[in-house]
Specification:
By secondary structure, chain A is mainly alpha-helical. Chain A is built from 15 helices and two strands. Chain A is flat, with a radius of gyration of 26 Å. In chain B, helix 11 crosses helix 15. The radius of gyration of chain B is 24 Å and the shape is flat. The chains are: A mainly alpha, B mainly alpha.
């Protein structure tokens, strides 16, 4: 068979199967990258979590040993507890974002600039947010203590006190997250049906009643996205803790994501297997939310084209 | 519109609202304003304890000059650019292809592949950390910008595919049908019909990814070390160690590090918000 005929048969095969083959040709590079860097590593991590491994030498199979050790590890429970605190308190960003969005949802001169300036905290890196809040909390010169001093309250070392540290870091994290939720709600408010509001007004609804019964139900898509991004943000919290306290004091501000990093990649020793088992626990927690998210997307899709 | 439009309310409330806006803004941005003021203060103000007062002299040029000419900051900034720009391009290329495939064609595993991208995108970084670090080491890309770029492209492709696929799915399908009837090849449909229509989505995605990657800290410290290849987020922490109590330099450095995404946001605001709020309005 000459090369020209080979080319034509090849070409005609492609021509005949064009619609079936094209999507795969378009998918291959993206799917390959994603499998290599995201999907396979998940399973590799699960596998690593059954070994005792320093990252360099021979890995030693320990079965569920790492998980058993986790069960007795106090630091693990501190991290888990802090993760729950993060999850619960981080959700405050949603009502806070709604509140600011309602406050800014007016048409006065310059409001567009105000809206974008309010969004500022989300655009800058968490590393910078962390540094700024560290200074804000500083026990000797921090703005917070200067402010408390006005009311005659003794200085509080927020980041050095195991009772306050987690809350102090969460407050720093809620700041940009609120800005994010605010933008979601501002966009959502744009799409609220004015006729329904008018109708409700004629029926005598206003204030809270109007908000709760007419506005909030229409903001459901925005609330859903805000919920998803806030949960993920809370479970991914790492940057702020690393910058602000490095897990301290006495590991009291650790969360699972930070503890995992500490175990696997810091001077505490390179315990890859143990770290992986912490990551698997975190992954399982996240999996609940991912499943819920995919499930609700699936319901949406069934209605579509 | 909710709440009641301000024009319809009493004159006094209108004035109160106008006055409240700047007050609220200043309170909201107080931490950032403080850093901005820090960054133009002379060193002496901090040693004499004048932290929150007005600067005794304005040392804008001195402080920022030091950041740019007497520190590793320019190098970190350059690294960030060299990591962020290729990542954005890579994500745009890969995800417009995957988005096209998943948004236009019907095949059995379509939804499953789509869900794989979506789910992978929400995975906590920590479960990827050990294997991705090993993979990067094995490929000889540990502590290189390329190592970071490859990972970022792969990971962000998950989010971008979600974005592009939904966008393409919302396009009028007739356009593609008509082109097919005309006998236009499928890849030409992608290039000449769909791609031009994707421009707003591509812009939205590009600014978002730019911000995400510029601000990334976790992978920067997992996959790189040292000024050779680290981006500015990691750089600022070693800057912190170097100038521990030099708050004026730290502030100037932080502002320089934060500026590119902020500038991007202001330049591309419409697109940026369109990207963030994807799906929040129906």
């Amino acid at each position: 068979m000459s090369s020209t005929t080979e080319a034509t048969t090849k070409n005609s095969w492609y021509k005949r199967n064009e619609i079936a083959a094209t999507p795969w040709l378009f998918l291959i590079p993206g799917v390959a990258m994603f499998l290599l860097y995201v999907i396979f590593p998940i399973f590799q991590s699960i596998n690593v979590s059954f070994y005792e491994w320093d990252g360099l030498g021979e890995a030693e199979w320990v079965g569920l040993g790492n998980y058993e050790e986790l069960y007795w590890d106090d630091a693990f429970y501190v991290s888990l507890r802090n993760n729950l605190i993060w999850l619960v308190l981080y959700l405050l960003a949603i009502p806070a974002g709604l509140f600011i969005a309602l406050f800014l949802n007016q048409t006065v001169t310059g409001i567009r600039l105000y809206k974008s300036l309010f969004f500022f905290p989300f655009v800058i890196s968490q590393v910078v947010v962390g540094l700024v809040f560290t200074w804000f909390y500083d026990p000797t010169f921090g703005l917070l203590n200067q402010f408390l001093g006005v009311f005659g309250i003794d200085p509080i070392n927020v980041l050095g006190d195991e009772r306050y540290v987690t809350y102090g870091i969460i407050a720093a994290g809620i700041w940009p997250q609120t800005a994010y939720c605010m933008i979601l709600y501002l966009t959502g408010l744009n799409a609220v049906d004015p006729e329904q509001i008018e109708a409700a007004r004629l029926d005598g609804a206003k204030g809270w009643k109007m908000l709760w019964h007419i506005i909030v139900p229409q903001l459901k898509p925005a609330t859903f996205i805000a919920f998803v991004v806030t949960i993920i943000g809370a479970l991914r919290s790492f940057d702020l803790i690393s910058i602000m306290t490095n897990g301290g004091p006495f590991g009291e501000s650790r969360v699972l994501s930070f503890y995992m990093f500490e175990v696997a990649l810091s001077e505490y020793g390179f315990r890859m297997g143990y770290g992986a088992s912490i990551a698997v626990v975190l992954f399982l927690i996240m999996l609940c939310f991912i499943t819920y998210f995919l499930w609700s997307m699936y319901k949406d899709e069934k209605g579509g084209r | 519109m909710f709440p009641t439009p301000i024009e319809k309310s009493s004159r006094s409330w209108q004035l109160t609202y106008q006055a409240l806006l700047p007050v609220a803004l200043v309170l909201w941005l107080l931490p950032l304003l403080a850093v901005a003021v820090f960054s133009i203060k002379p060193d002496a103000d901090f040693t004499t304890g004048n932290y929150w007062g007005l600067p005794t002299s304005i040392e804008f040029a001195t402080n920022y000059g030091k950041v740019f000419f007497a520190s590793d900051m320019p190098r970190y900034l350059l690294n960030s650019v060299m990591i962020t720009v290729p990542t954005v391009i890579g994500c745009v290329v890969l995800s417009s292809m995957t988005g096209f495939a998943l948004g236009v064609y019907k095949f059995r595993s379509n939804l499953w592949i789509f869900f794989m991208f979506v789910a992978g995108n929400f995975v906590p970084f920590q479960i990827l950390m050990v294997p991705v670090r090993d993979l990067t080491l094995d490929m000889g890309l540990y502590n290189t910008k390329a190592g970071l770029v490859f990972f970022h492209i792969a990971f962000q492709t998950g989010f971008c595919t979600l974005f592009m696929r939904n966008f393409i799915k919302a396009l009028p399908f007739d356009l593609i049908e008509v082109a097919r009837v005309e006998g236009v090849a499928e890849w030409r449909i992608f290039w000449y019909v769909v791609l031009p229509l994707m421009k707003p989505a591509l812009a939205a995605m590009a600014v978002l990814i730019f911000t995400f990657i510029w601000n990334d800290f976790f992978w920067a410290i997992v996959l790189t070390q040292g000024a050779e290849s680290q981006p500015v987020t990691a750089g600022i922490t070693s800057f912190n160690a170097q100038y521990r109590a030099a708050y004026h330099l730290m502030s100037a450095g932080s502002i320089v590090a934060a500026l590119p995404p902020v500038a991007m946001f202001f330049l591309m605001q419409k697109h940026f918000i369109a990207g963030l709020t994807l799906g929040a309005v129906k």
